Amino acid sequence: MSRILVVEDETHLAEGLRFNLEAEGHAADLCGDGESAVRRLLHQSEHFDAVVLDVMLPGMDGFAVASALRKAKNYVPVLILTARGRPEDVLEGFAAGADDYLAKPFDLQIFLARLQGLLRRSAWLSGSMKATASAAVGAAPSPEAAASDVGGSSGEVYAFDTKTLDFETLELRSGENTVHLTLMEAKLLRHLIRNAGRVVSRKAILEDVWDLREDTDTRAIDNFIVRLRRYLEDDPGKPRHLQTVRGVGYKFVA
């Protein structure tokens, strides 16, 4: 049985979500504001298998909650559920560290399927970390094999330069340093690695990585790239691996 924290200030919706989650066999706790959610998740260190998070909360909004969790290295799966469904809002949610984003009004079965996907990935991650602790990682595969399926059971490690990307544990390792990637950061890197050496347009990134229409403001993509360069590049101001192709998009070079 999974334990879900629902952070929602509309009481009728929160109670409805709890009813349906419990009908699916989950345990559901409710929070009405962001500060309470952060207190329970970080300061009281309560364990939850996933968080369903509204954005428009009194006080601390949902984006700030997600960002606070990630800064504190808490990687509980977060599904943002909100009336703010513009593409720019979706990208802001992903940038804050959300794993998935569903706009209100929503179909209950879609919501349950999205949540189950996050719980399944969390279970995969837990199993992968246990396996990694008991056995050394073997030789790194090609970019295509490594990038084939985030959350799969094999072929998820890709090494380049002095760095190792583990798409199963969502970790980037460089020497003794480890950076934990969000799911969206990993998906973007996977897409670029799969197309290593080729220019990937911003339009293609919007459609293939985030399932957004092409007229969305692409500055959010640039912000993602800036953050990834801080992880990947020895000198982010002079990138060697995540290269900009002016007026078109980006290219990954191992």
CATH architecture of the largest domain: 3-Layer(aba) Sandwich
Secondary-structure class: alpha/beta
Overall morphology: globular
Number of helices: 9
Oligomer: single chain
Q: What percent of the residues sit in helical stretches (DSSP H or I)?
A: 40-55%
CATH topology of the largest domain: Rossmann fold
- The value of Rg in angstroms is 19 Å
CATH top level assignment of the largest domain = Alpha Beta
- CATH homology superfamily name of the largest domain: Response regulator
Strand tally is: 12
Tell me what you see in this structure.
It is globular and about 50 Å long. Helix 2 runs parallel beside helix 3 (62-71), helix 3 packs parallel to helix 4 (87-96) and helix 4 (87-96) runs parallel beside helix 9 (219-232). The strands form 3 sheets. A 5-stranded parallel sheet has the order 2-1-3-4-5, with helices on both faces. The chain folds into 2 domains: 3-122, Response regulator (Rossmann fold, 3-Layer(aba) Sandwich), CATH 3.40.50; 136-252, Arc Repressor Mutant, subunit A (Orthogonal Bundle). The chain has helices at 11-23, 34-43, 62-71, 87-96, 108-134, 143-146, 183-194, 202-208, 219-232, and strands at 3-7, 27-31, 50-53, 78-82, 100-103, 157-160, 163-166, 171-174, 177-180, 199-201, 242-245, 249-252. The chain is an alpha/beta fold.
